[in-house]
Amino acid sequence: MRKLSLRARAWISDICYALLVLVTGCFFAISGALLLSQAIRTSPIRSWTNNWDAVIIAATYLLVCIISIALCVKRRVTVRRRLQRIAKTHHSIVRKEVPQPVHEYISQEFARSCLVSYESQPCNTVHSGWGRPGTRLSGIRFRRALLDTIAEIDARTRLVIPSHPDLKPHARMLHHFRFLLPLLPKDEEGLSELHYYDSAIQLARTVDREPTEEEYQRGMDAVASILQMLRECRSEMLEDSRI
């Protein structure tokens, strides 16, 4: 069953309180009117004139109404003042604020909670496609991290090549960044860092299994090399423009 929201419950509570006050006021008024009519009927002259019973009844009801209103106002003021005295910011409890046994109990429970939280942390756990806990890759999802580098490299490339073509959703990195190939060195196999980066992105895009840590690391090494080359080209362009 779906629970009501806090605002809905507060709204229902206010309506119920208003109905309770309205019903109580109605019964209060009806009972006063009936007693006054009874006092008039039992009077010898059947009139308001010199009818002390009616005066006493009216005064009693008026006094009860005033006292009830005063008690409600006093209660609301007291609650508001107590709420205002509550600190809005966090304050640690020192020993002088609570008895010694209470302070020791709070300290023991805090230490126990910290210990349970520490022991509950995963260790020696490996999830496919995620960095191992306790390492520098902890909390990193390899597939998402590799795909996020596309926009970064594309933005850096446009600083060097303003007329660079727009990025298409499923374009191969080797084709999209083809203008960077002459700027990247090649290894003994004739492959540049862009080739390795393209392989890593295709792996993250199309393969059902999650990338391994080695594949992720190789792809990020290619990203670092490409970004370093773009930074050097950008620096040379700025230097030439100054000259």
Automatic annotation (TrEMBL):
Chief localisation class: membrane
Superkingdom to which the source organism belongs: Eukaryota
Transmembrane segments: 12-34, 54-73
InterPro entries, sorted: DLT1 (IPR038869)
Keywords: Membrane, Transmembrane, Transmembrane helix
Subcellular location: Membrane
UniProt function note: Required for growth under high-pressure and low-temperature conditions.
Family the entry assigns: Belongs to the DLT1 family.
Protein name, per record: Defect at low temperature protein 1
Lineage of the species this protein comes from: Eukaryota, Fungi, Dikarya, Basidiomycota, Agaricomycotina
Gene this chain is encoded by: DLT1
